[in-house]
Amino acid sequence: MKPKNMLMDTMKSGRTALGVWANDPETAELCAHLGFDWIMIDMMFTGMDFHDVQNMIRTCEAAGITPVVRMQTNPWHGYDARIGVDLSRLQGLGAEYVLISHSGLQEINEALEIARDWHRRALWIHPFNSREWEQRTDEMAQATYIIPHVESQGGIDDFDKVLDHPDLKMFFFAMTDLSKVLGGNAKKPDFNSPDLWKLVDRGVKKAQQRGIMVGANTSYAYTLEEMRQRVKRLHDAGMNFIMIQGAQFLFQVAMMEFLPNVRKDLGLV
After folding, report:
1. H-type helices in the chain, by residue range?
2. Origin, by domain of life (predicted)?
């Protein structure tokens, strides 16, 4: 029996699916308990390896929260043929939702082709009987979601071409680095950048016309109230799924307010 898919169930019901970044089993279980729909497992800027990801996928499925894996890439460095190889391995581990921060259309073309492959946990659970190969292979491809993650100049240059791909089902805006690139490689992100929101609005409109589910992250704000406002703004802009940054970052923001007040209460300041 397939595990619960909170991300897709929530979006198909017409609601916005909410998630955070989390890379350990305890936090994944806590996020499920709190009512989040999905978590992002990050291989891009952490020490997570394939074995770690495999165990995180199993934890999420057991806890009832959808795992989305951001695979290791460097989109600012240019085209990388390793993306296709690593994607094959992630699919083999059971990853159905894979965020790909890409340098251009070629990487997404290759990823969407690889998504048709049948290897899904196949070395420990053979997925077919003698009559099921064609039907089950199609079902596997339909249940796999390659999510282009735009945050590089190459991703911007091929923005419309990626959204026009006939096999694309999901798309994601990386609001931090995307705003920096649009701002001339600025050092500081600007969530409120008019150029950023012009691109977002254009992308959401095209995605809605083509039936593509679209998501984004909140970038970084330093009060929980502002983070909340950003979630609402993304929702109102038409996002189907939103990442409210990392669980650790939200804890950090909460403690920046909480600890000074505790120290004040105790006469430590």
Report:
1. 6-12, 25-34, 50-63, 82-93, 105-114, 133-142, 153-157, 159-163, 175-182, 194-210, 224-236, 247-265
2. Bacteria
